[in-house]
Amino acid sequence: MSPQTLRLEQASRFRNKTLAALLALFFGSLGAHGLYLGRRLWWLPLAYTMLMAAGVLVADTWWDNIFVHLLIVPVTAGILEAVILALRDPARFDAVYNPQGGGRNSHGWPSVLTAIAGAVAFVNISLYWLAIIVLALYRHLGWLDSWVY
Questions:
Q1: Can you tell me the distance from the alpha carbon of 79 to that of 117, in angstroms, rounded to the nearest whole number?
Q2: pTM
Q3: For residues 84 and 81, what is the distance between their CA atoms, to the nearest angstrom?
């Protein structure tokens, strides 16, 4: 199969907005939604995540490792993209990802629930990140020297 034929086959495939949002929510750090949507550089989040995961495996303690905190970046980006994809206007989504007009996306409960789940996940990760930053600041200032944690 020639690359041109393969490109035409991929262009004629209908892309569901809710499925793309779910892929971004659960596998966004691996770039699964980018692969599903046919983006050219879908593998960049995967490469970054694999590099950070390798750094976590090499470290002595995973909880006090910079790579764990850097791993939060693609996870957070995937969750934010899930919310954006879920709440995006279906006509705009179809204009970009379904230009052939084979089917049409619409708003509905699945996309709303995906956006809500993404927002909840984003808040939880943000609170975790804030707690880690405060803990690091307290440790740096010496306020936790006599505490066992």
A1: 9
A2: 0.81
A3: 5
